[in-house]
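Quick one, T. Sequence first:
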Amino acid sequence: MSPQLRGYPDGTDRPATLADVAAASGVATSTASRALSNPGRVNAITRERIEQAARELNYIPNSQARALTSGRTRCIAVLVSDVTNPFYFGIIRGTQQQLKAAGYTQLLVDTEESDELEDGMLHKLRPSFDGAILAASRLTDRRLTALAADVPIVAINRQTRGVANVFIDTPNGVEQAVGHLASLGHRSIVYASGPETSWSNERRWRALVRAAERYEVETLRVGPFAPRQYAGAAAADAVLHAGATACIAFNDLLAIGMLARFRERGVSVPDDVSLVGCDDIFGADFCNPPLTTLTAPIEQAGRTAVAMLLARLDESAAPVSRQAATLPTHLTVRASTGPAPATPTPHISTKGRA
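Structure tokens:
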């Protein structure tokens, strides 16, 4: 979305200047400047007249006008699907630190798990940033590819052809989790699925299926569930109905909600059911019991994405040779996983097993 411009008698379309605002409001340019930059130094009636003229002329302050003229704002948009999810805290911290060191400002956008909102905000805010980092984008591959052709972007936790990306390898971590659970004697594992629009959700499920075949373990997928703690109750009930002895949850927030529901139903973790989360967010080790989960270099992902994007934006730099980076994950074993129960518990229904 480009700023609206006002036509002038000389036949050109140009942004209004401070002098234009002053002329339209019948004051000196210096007075107009004071009213817009230091309102307290101008009386209310005059200030309101100047502000009204600025609005009507779509006046853009000099700093913004220079950015629009040069095409550079030195601002980077960072889009996350849920700003309240602790997983994104590390990414936001990593991008913020790296951008600050490079003299850039971070524009943080919460897309609320909505692909439509994500797409809309990218269009609406386009004049305000030089490039964007999309953390766990909910856009389709086709839309993301088209976007990359128009806007310098780097995606985190998303691999799409033609799009620079930083991939946190949670699928490999899921395979580690399956091996861990199989070694404890579990022969049936449920995957508590995350949002259908999540690219990483599907990759984790596929990794679980591959590993389950290797370890000769039965698998079942339940959900999808919102990647939030409140959805844990429904996820826990679905796992119990499936009759499995172990579960891998889409993320830690969902797993933490499941722990609470298991307690409500008198199900012991890990004696009756073992549970694995994903992300190792702040608080995962404070749960009761502490959560076995996949640990990832989340803050590093943010820093790497910024470095990759800024290299693309620097016209004086050599062409970017690296379009993708993969960061490894590892399984952190805590008390929420243990040996499979020798016999089914009365809390777990064996009906409905796939």
